Structure formats: structure tokens, C-alpha cells
């Protein structure tokens, strides 16, 4: 039987649309726009032109600009042709200015800005009619940058999603910016690092949003008392009479040395008795050796990005959007604990661990001289591991391939040079060889691997 090749242009429009919907919009426009009249009509469909991500995103959350040939063609030709159809743009810092000034965007209502200096972003966004901007997703370094966004220049903005590295106090932040934000309807605040300004900055900031309908809050904070349901009602919810949905994960930490009253899990949970949704989860971690305690409260965990200080008390659940977690306890983490973590955080990318206690079950497993009763755990999206304050047993847990299977050429490992040398038996141990060969890069606290370790880490520059 003779087979004849089928070209893309031979397929019916319906089949072409099914195929193209599975591909990247930028690649579709770059490859097919202007090829012929029929394909040109198809790729001008709003499905391919309304929402564009004009940058490259990698598995480790790093971002790069588009290759120069692709960026040149978009700025010189493609954006001019489809500018009136573009409703949303995701941009990175180095190419943002060129893209925003390449043409006018009369129907643009949403922007996603990444790795951006706030002053540059604001000046450029103003040039493209900030009065039409309705929704903004942005990653920022400082809380003050968030306040700049809400100084009145975006008078139609109703949705703002902010991911901030740090929230620290300063006199100008505390004393200024007290005006209400009546137009804001949906707001999300995610913060990577702990803050001690929850009561002095975050709560007063949220109280400026009286017409908020949806709020998402994902923070870790150092405080004098635990954040509970009563505090959420008094300092946030009661200031938002139109609030319909409140998604939150708040991890609050307190020093327990001078505490007279230490609330239990039941005490914290009781403060949520009047909440409309009875699915609020709370638990408290008190440690035998550490004079510091944590209280975790959350609702709708599927919307969160960060989870802090996961301990053996972790109740489980499914966190489909969390990419970064920290593990801490003064009790051992056993192998089964890491299986629970993998199941609860299926797209986990960044994991840091702090635990100085050796595993109890390790000796039992070694005495049996096999791991047949233990599941090999997989973290398929993992890109970053940090073990600076971890017992050697946990380094072994991740580097011995019969315990955990690491993804190929993806993981960056932060670890002390001496600890890595011990666990790998000075880079000769067979049990850790497979996973070490998968590591993409290492940070050894300003130390470098010896030349003879090159074959043990073939993907790492020595």
C-alpha cells in the first residue's frame, strides 16, 4: 500500500484547530502567520492572539527573554498585525520595554510582569494607557513596590496578584498610604520570606480594600501571639463587608519563653466556629528543644504557592499549586514522611530541610540489608534542594537512589562541603552515585569539588 504525505494545509480547519490548541501560542504565530491566507486567518483567531507569554519559562522557575530572531519578528511585524486582539501579556524585564512600545494595545486589560524593576514597569505601563488596565499579576522584591502600584495611577484596576520576596518595616510605609482602594475587587498576596510586619503593615494595608470580593493571603509571620480566626475576623474580614471568598495559609511563629498561655490546636480551631466555611484546618507545633512555636491555619489549600515549616504534625492534604516548602522539626523525619510530602505536593520544585535528629528507622532498614518494604519516592518537578542544617540521614534519604528518585539534570543542591563528602564516602559510594550523577549544579558554601570528583558529578562544573 502506497502512503502519501499529508501537509498541514491539507487538514480540515476543525482538525487544525484541535492540533494548534495544544501548541504554544507564540510558536504558532511565529511559524504560521503570513504563510498563506488560510493559515493566516486561523492563527488570527482570539484563541491564539488574546493571551501571549513573550518570554521563556523553565522548570526551575527561571525566566529568559525570547530568542532574538523571534523577538525581532514579533516587535517588527506580528504585534502590529494583532495588536487590537491582544488582551493579556506576560513579560520579563529585558524585553518588556521593547514589546510595550512596539505598538499600541487598545484592548489590553491584563499584564503579568516578572523580574521587573517597579519604577521602569510603572513608567512603561503608563505609556500604554494605564486607565484601561483591569488586571495585573506581578512578582516584586519589596512591599513598597506594591504600594507604588496602588497610588492611584491605575484607576480601573480591579484585580491584583502580587508575589513578594520580602515584607520589611520602614517609617515611610508605616505612616503613609492610608487612602482607601475602593475599586479593588480581587487581591492576592504571596510572600516567600518570613515577615515581622503582619500586624503593622499587612493588616492595615488590607483594611484599605473595603469592596474586596476575593482575597488570597499566603504568608509566614513572626508575632507575639498566634493568628487565629478571631484575629482574621476583627482585623480583616470585618473591614470587607463584600468579601465572598477568603483563601489563606498563614503560618505564625511566636517565642514561647515568656508566654503564660499556650493555645492548643483545639483552642485555635474553636476560633473558626463562626466561619461560613467549616473546612478551615489548623494545627500547632510546640518543640521540646526549640523555644519557638508555629501555628498553621489554612482554607482552600489548592490555591497556595508556599508552605512553611512542615513538621511531623502535618495533617496531609493535596496542595496542587505549592512549589516551595520548608521542613523543620526536632523529631526525626522517617522515610514515610517524605512519601507523604511527595503525595501532598505533586508539583514541588524547591525544598529546604532543617532537622538535626537522626532517623530512627534507618538502622532497622540497614539491618535487614534491603529496602524491599519501602517505596521509592519520586519528586518529578524538583529543581532545588537545601540541606545546610540537616542531619546526614536526610542527605542520604535524597541521594540514595533506592530511597528517592531525583529527576535528570534538573536539581541544584545547596549543601555543606563536609556533609556531602561524608555521605558520599568522599565521592566513592555506589549507593549515592546515581542520584549525584543527576545533579545539575552544586553550592558548597564557597568550596569547590576536587577534580577527582568530576566523574561522580558528570553534569556539575568542577
UniProtKB/TrEMBL annotation:
Q: Cross-referenced Pfam families, in alphabetical order? A: F-box
Q: Which residues form the F-box domain?
A: 5-52
Family matches, as PROSITE patterns: FBOX
Q: What is this protein called?
A: F-box domain-containing protein
Among InterPro entries, the record links this protein to:
F-box-like_dom_sf, F-box_dom, LRR_dom_sf
Q: State the taxonomy lineage.
A: Eukaryota, Metazoa, Spiralia, Gnathifera, Rotifera
Amino acid at each position: 500500500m502506497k502512503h502519501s504525505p499529508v501537509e498541514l494545509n491539507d487538514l480540515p480547519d476543525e482538525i487544525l484547530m484541535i492540533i494548534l490548541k495544544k501548541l504554544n501560542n507564540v510558536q504558532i504565530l511565529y511559524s504560521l502567520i503570513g504563510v498563506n491566507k488560510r493559515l493566516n486567518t486561523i492563527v488570527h483567531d482570539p484563541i491564539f492572539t488574546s493571551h501571549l507569554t513573550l518570554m521563556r519559562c523553565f522548570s526551575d522557575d527561571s525566566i529568559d527573554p525570547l530568542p532574538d530572531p523571534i523577538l525581532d519578528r514579533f516587535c517588527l511585524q506580528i504585534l502590529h498585525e494583532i495588536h487590537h486582539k491582544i488582551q493579556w501579556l506576560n513579560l520579563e524585564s529585558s524585553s518588556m520595554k521593547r514589546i510595550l512600545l512596539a505598538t499600541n494595545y487598545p484592548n489590553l486589560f491584563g499584564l503579568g510582569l516578572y523580574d521587573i524593576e517597579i519604577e521602569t514597569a510603572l513608567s512603561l505601563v503608563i505609556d500604554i494607557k494605564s486607565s484601561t488596565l483591569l488586571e495585573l499579576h506581578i512578582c516584586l522584591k519589596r512591599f513598597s513596590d506594591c504600594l507604588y502600584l496602588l497610588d492611584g495611577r491605575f484607576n480601573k484596576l480591579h484585580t491584583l496578584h502580587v508575589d513578594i520576596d520580602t515584607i520589611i518595616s520602614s517609617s515611610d510605609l508605616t505612616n503613609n498610604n492610608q487612602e482607601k482602594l475602593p475599586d479593588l475587587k480581587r487581591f492576592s498576596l504571596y510572600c516567600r520570606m518570613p515577615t515581622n510586619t503582619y500586624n503593622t503593615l499587612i493588616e492595615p494595608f488590607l483594611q484599605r480594600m473595603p469592596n474586596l470580593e476575593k482575597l488570597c493571603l499566603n504568608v509566614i509571620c513572626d508575632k507575639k501571639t498566634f493568628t487565629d480566626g478571631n484575629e482574621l475576623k476583627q482585623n480583616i474580614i470585618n473591614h470587607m463587608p463584600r468579601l465572598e471568598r477568603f483563601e489563606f495559609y498563614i503560618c505564625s511563629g511566636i517565642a514561647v519563653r515568656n508566654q503564660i498561655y499556650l493555645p492548643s490546636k483545639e483552642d485555635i480551631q474553636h476560633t473558626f466556629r463562626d466561619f461560613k466555611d467549616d473546612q478551615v484546618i489548623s494545627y500547632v507545633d510546640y518543640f521540646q528543644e526549640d523555644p519557638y512555636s508555629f501555628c498553621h491555619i489554612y482554607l482552600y489549600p489548592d490555591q497556595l504557592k508556599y508552605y512553611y515549616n512542615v513538621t511531623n504534625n502535618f495533617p496531609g492534604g493535596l496542595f496542587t499549586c505549592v512549589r516551595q516548602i520548608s521542613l523543620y522539626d526536632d523529631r526525626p523525619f522517617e522515610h514515610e514522611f517524605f512519601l507523604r510530602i511527595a503525595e501532598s505536593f505533586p508539583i514541588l520544585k524547591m525544598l529546604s530541610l532543617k532537622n538535626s535528629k537522626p532517623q530512627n528507622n534507618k538502622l532497622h532498614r540497614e539491618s535487614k540489608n534491603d529496602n524491599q518494604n519501602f517505596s521509592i519516592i519520586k519528586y518529578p518537578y524538583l529543581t532545588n534542594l537545601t540541606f545546610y542544617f540537616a542531619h546526614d540521614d536526610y542527605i542520604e534519604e535524597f541521594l540514595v537512589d533506592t530511597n528517592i528518585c531525583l529527576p535528570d539534570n534538573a536539581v541544584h543542591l545547596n549543601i555543606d562541603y563536609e556533609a556531602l563528602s561524608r555521605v558520599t564516602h568522599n565521592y566513592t559510594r555506589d549507593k549515592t552515585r546515581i542520584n549525584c550523577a543527576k545533579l545539575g549544579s552544586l553550592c558548597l558554601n564557597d568550596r569547590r569539588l576536587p577534580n577527582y570528583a568530576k566523574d561522580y558529578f558528570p553534569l556539575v562544573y568542577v
